[in-house]
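Researcher: Let's try something more involved. This one mixes different molecule types, so please make sure each is placed in the same coordinate frame as the others.
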Amino acid sequence: MMPLRAAAPLALQAAALAVALALPAFVGANSYALFVATQLGIYTIAAIGLNLLSGYAGQVSLGHAAFVAIGAYSVALLTVDHHWSFWAAAAVGMGLAAGLGVLAALPAFRLNTWYFAFITLAFALVFEKMIVEWRWLTKGFAGVVGVPPPSAFGYEFGPRPLYYTVVLVTIVAFVIVRNIIDSRFGRIFVAVRDVEPAALAVGASPQRTKLVAFVISAALAGIAGAFFAVQKTVVTPDDFTADFSIFFLLTIVLGGLGTLWGPIIGALVFFLIPELLTGMESWRMFIYGVILLGLMLFAPHGLYGALRQAWRRLTPPTPRAPAEVAQRTEHPPIAGLSLEISGLSKRFGGVLALDGVEFSAPAGSCCAIVGPNGSGKTTLLNLASGYYKPDAGSVKIGGIETLGSSAQKIAARGVGRTFQTPRLIAGLTALDNVVLGAFMRERASLLSIALRLPYARQEARRLREEALGFLHFVGVADRAETEAGETPHGQQRLIEIARAMMGGTRLILLDEPAAGLSMVELERLELLIRRICNLGATIVIVEHHLDLVANIASYVVVLDHGTALAAGKPASVFNDARVMRAYMGERALQAAAPA
Amino acid sequence: MDFDVVAHGIVAGSLYALVAVSFNILYRPTNVFNFAQGELVMLGAMIFASITSLAGMPWFVAFAATLIAVGLIGLVEERVAVAPILARSQTGTGWVITTLAVSLIISNLVGRVWGPDPILVKPPQPLSMETLDLGPSHLSSYEIALVLVTIVLVAIVESAYRTLKGKAVMAVAEDREAALLRGIDPGSLGRWSFFLGAAFAAMTGILAAPILYASTALGPDLLLKGFAAAAVGSIGNNRGALIAGYIIGITEAVGASLLSPGYQEAVIFIVVLTVLLVRPQGLFGSPNARTV
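Model: All components are placed in one shared frame. Result:
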């Protein structure tokens, strides 16, 4: 028998579905209840899309009403004026909503998130004005009247079939979005929202990621608009005001931003509120504002989050069997990439952080960069991996010049990296964080993921096993199902290394991996680095811990004030008088020197 | 094309520049772009209009009282809607939604208290809204004064950033934790910047009132045009905001006179999108490096 913890949500889902399907049997075809239920479905479709965009990908759209309006006007104008069939017109509405939206939002994807919020807000305002302005097309304030119901095979849809169609589309939208969230796209949405450097490190383009989320979201708004038009049969500019956009935002915040059921719960509750608020109509926006503010402050995961928390408190978790540890897989050898840096310079304002630095790490070697704080070590790493743009010099990875390439392009060449402070996605499990590393290797298309085709499912399963293997390799397989934010610092570092390896990386840049590790963890790290090196990967490590460096590195460069002070084998470099001076200061050196 | 169109574009553009500067004052130490800023401008205009025309308070007293009142509302906004969100996550954008919520609350409350009718506000003596015949252009003495005052205000704000406190603000904007280590309190700067940013917004509202009237419609309109000026002129750059304000004001005026007034917003929108597409950092900024 299934434990209660797993069974109850399933039962709830089945009950919700049953109520939705049985409703028309109990209410009249022309009843207000059926009308409201249809409308609820339509709004839910748009809210599911907005939740994908704003909840998961973190791009708050304040103009979602405009995309609904595009779908609605497309259907209204094409069916009334040009006698198109509803289905063709709805497809056009979807395409137009996504296309026009992308055109407007394109500049915002490169910028801070709030630009997107402003631009969508402005887009909705401009669109509202244009509907009125282009009277010849949209009939201005009067609106488009008499939108015919959809029909198929010569059969015209009455209120009941329309209701069933809307329910079907809502379910399809929900399932598709669920499948996408549970894939590499969902993981990268969350990465872009929470930890953009991590998205870059696995080779994803944040711009393209936001674009994908937005296209899906605008298309869903478009299809919602199409049904909006046929349900109301009249489409006017007054239907799509700024208030309408706020309404969608409130729906998803109320239900729970970035939760699968959020938009559905939010829409359900929201349809009750106006009934409760009759007589307080003029206070509506004020109440919306207070609810939005209160939820964001006290329940950022909305009603769904609150319910989930209560549920967890009621049913203590059955200790989950740790994910079955994969057989100690033999990891295939890695063909290391060489790294050659010459004449590299970088200036921050008046500070010359790097001044003509030379460095090379032959394929398959383990090299280290050491130096006092502020000597330019991390800057060097950031330049090599494309996070900074250099002022002069050359960076060759595997013999190919990569200077000036973007971080995600360099990552896609097989360059993995870790960060000084681990950059894991706190809300994803350790395993999901590692699977994220394979982002560039995954071949399943958005469509096959959305429809959960066998190929996509097989690939997902294979990658999970592989990721578990890497977690095992770094020694934290027992944490696979723990949220990354809840794992200890030392393990986060190891998970980050596993993520880099998952990406098929051939050159690994480690930024102070030993910082903050205990002695035991340090030994394990040393062993791990040796094992990665033995597989054949090239390792470049920036580190303060000189014992570690002396043990593992075959070649060391000492940076001081942006220039290479000394380079060579660790034993000889660490005995260099200039290096000791830079590290310990002149006086310490004299005191230590034999009299 | 009429020279008058350009002149009126510069007058309107000065107001947009002031809104953009008020955005910048807030943005620099907090990295928060206040979506309620338009409503704070509107609130400034409404409070000032009420206490001068109804209570008959002298101009300067009313001016100071309005600035302090709206500044305090900004402070409350920071404490209630912004600081808790930033405490949860420095990088998150929850404040987009909370400041938007504040804007809904303010605009609805103001609508309840004052009603929808615009209030006429007279400019301070000896300035007036009487149109002067100045050869090719027809501006009033108040409009000319507004353009000049805007330039002076931008210069004052810029010079304030060169003081020690101003540099502290820049340091916090650059790296909050590093500034903290050097004994700068980002929290206190955040509170101050919300107070001053809100007061500056109120002043913008007071200055705008004789030209645009004091009404609830002021908020959303100036929010978007102020954002346009701030984005085109590069966020945080006040001189950039001034020039961008002129660009937005003139484009709007020219667009409206060539096409139709209904196209005002569309024309501005296209200008902003084009600038951001070509130069994401705005016309007067340099692309800033990401830090990892």
